[in-house]
Amino acid sequence: MQQTHAGTPRHVETAGRRSFSFGSLFTYLCLILWSLTTIYPLLWIVNNSFKISRDVMNNSFAIALKPVMTNYTNAFDRISIGKSYMNSLIMSVSTVLLVLILGGLAAYIIARFKFRGRSAVYSILVATLLIPAFATVVPVYELLIKWKLVNTYWGLILPHTAGNLTFAILVIAAYMSTIPKDLEEAAFIDGCNRLTMFTRIFLPISRPVFASASIFVFLWSYNDLFSALIFVNKESVRPIVALLNEISSQYGTDFGLMAAAVSLTVIPVMIIYLFIQRFIEKGMTEGAIKG
């Protein structure tokens, strides 16, 4: 029997490599098959967006050999998708900024301060995740009416901020609790106060978890059709998800236009996600470990 330089039988080492290769092949095959369930519908939508409605109805699975741009021009001219796009970006980006500012400060206090009732506050935050959003619609709507914020940008920004704040606090606090105590002590020696320490030390170190929280908050705010239909149903402040809902009712027979509108809604978000996915993975994995 041949031996390796470390004394391990060569056929055992070769068998180990072969089993690892077969296992990796099986894993990648499963991942490819699973990804096709998401990638293929997206490609199908994009392909149909370059067809007229009649061709989509007759053969929606055929490749658009002669693509037309009529659906995209109609999306901007006929249904004013650009205005709804801007409304969604204004409300979603504002929600993300508010959640990151308020959630970051709250997470910093929970993660690095020792005070009476800290465990109770943490437990309450976790418990609020169990409350469904539907249960808060009536009181939130009454508050917005009282403050005259219905059918305004703030009428959707404030509910989304309140709804996503707990998630951001818990995720960011879990990450900040892993930052070594030595950095905090060194900052105190250098004369940093708490606010300076947060902005110059904890904030730069926590960029991965802030990126993770921002993309999740953005997507949840961007895709929230239920709140958009209730709080901002006016055309001037209508977000893009509400516009898609109206396309399906007013222009239900124009499937090419609907495919173009869905493509314009989904693809930019996917592009943004691809650029920052490495921050998301790092933030979620490191923030899940304490100590």
Mean pLDDT over all positions: 83
CATH topology of the largest domain: MetI-like fold
Largest sheet: none
Treating each run of at least 4 consecutive H or I residues as one helix, how many helices? 13
Count of DSSP strands: 0
What labels describe this entry?
291 residues; mainly alpha; MetI-like fold; 2 domains
Blueprint (SSEs and pairs):
Elements (H helix, E strand, L loop, with lengths): L9 H39 L4 H6 L11 H8 L3 H32 L5 H11 L8 H10 L7 H23 L4 H9 L4 H12 L1 H16 L2 H7 L8 H11 L4 H32 L5
What does the model show?
The chain is mainly α. The chain folds into two domains: 10-58; 70-286, MetI-like fold. 74% of the residues lie in helices and 0% in strands. It has 13 helices and no strands. It has helices at 10-48, 53-58, 70-77, 81-112, 118-128, 137-146, 154-176, 181-189, 194-205, 207-222, 225-231, 240-250, 255-286. The longest helix has 39 residues, at 10-48. The radius of gyration is 25 Å and the shape is globular. The chain starts with 9 loop residues before the first helix and ends in a 5-residue tail after the last helix.
Q: Gist?
A:
Helices cover 74% and strands 0% of the residues.
